[in-house]
C-alpha cells in the first residue's frame, strides 16, 4: 500500500532551513483531505513518519513541527517523541480545559518546544499562548496592522514568532523588517510530497495485543508471541524502540524490545497505529513465508548447536523478507531497526554465527541438497528432522492465517 506525507520547510532570516512541518496527505494530489479529522490525520502522520518513512529520512538533522489536537495532547502521545527533534504544534482550534492545561504544563516541564498554529488577533486562549515558545502568525487571516500589533505584543513576552503563509518576496522582506524570526509559505516552497510503502497489517493482531495489554498483569511472553506472528508489528516495534534515543543495547528478541519500551508506551503507540489500520486486513504469501521461516529457524536452533540463539533466529526469520514487503533493498530496510550487527550482517548475506541456520532454511526452500547437508553438518543439526520441521512450520503458518481470517470476518 502506498503512503504519503508532505513536508514544508521553515526558514530563518538568511534562507536557512531550520525545520520542516510534516503534513498529512492521503494521495498523489498533495492536498489535505478535509473529511479526515485532525486527530486521525495526526495519528496517521505519526505512524507513517516513525514507522514507515523514518523521521530522520524525512527531515535529516532538522527539527520537525507536527500538529496536535486536544485529544492527542491529552493522550500523552507527545511524550513518546524526542523532545530535541519535535516541536508540538497546537492547533488554533484547541479549547483549553483543566486537563489539557495540565498536559501542556507537563510538556513544558519535560523540555518540549511548543508552538501555536494559525495565530490571529482574535485568538482568546491566553493560557495556551503563555505556554508556547513559538507563535505562528497567519499572514492570510490578519491585517498588516494586526500583524504589527501581534509582533510588538509577542516580542514583549519573549516569544519566537513565525510568519506563516508568506506568499511573496515583499511579504518576506516586510516580515523581516518588523521582527519575525522564522518564515514559512509558498514564497519559499510549496509542501513537497513524499511517497513510500506501508507494511501490510492484521487488524486482529492489534486487538489481541491490546487485549493482553489491558489485563492486570500483561505477559511479555504472550505479547511477544502475538507480535511475532506479524511482520509489520515486529518491524514497527523495533523502529519504535529506536525512535526516541532511548536504546542502550542492541535488540535480540521481541520480548526484549517490549521490556525496553514498557507497557504504557507500547499501548499509546498501538492506539495510534490502530487508527490507521483497524479497518484493513492484508495478508500475502511473502508474510506467510516469513512466518514459516521464523518457526523453522526456531526448530533448527532448538535441535542444533544454536540452542542459545532461538529468539534471535526466530526474529531473523520474521525479518528475512522485509525488503520484499517494503520494496526496497535490505540495507535500507534494516537502517532504522536496532538489531545487533551480527543479525544485520546475516540478513545482508554475510557470514555470522547465524548464517548456517539461515542457509539451511533457504537451501531447503530451493531444494539445493548439497547446501542443506553442508549447513546442517556445520551446526550439528540432524538433517532427517528437516522435512518434518518444515511441514510443521507450514501447517502452523497456515493455521495462524486461517484463525486470523475466521476471527476477523
UniProtKB/TrEMBL annotation:
It comes from Tepidibacter hydrothermalis. The lineage of its organism: Bacteria, Bacillati, Bacillota, Clostridia, Peptostreptococcales. Residues 199-385 form the HDOD domain. It comes from the Bacteria. Residues 1-205 form the EAL domain. InterPro entries: dGMP_Pdiesterase_EAL/HD-GYP, EAL_dom, EAL_sf, HDOD, RNase_Y/CdgJ. This is EAL domain-containing protein. SMART domains: EAL (SM00052). Coiled coil: none annotated.
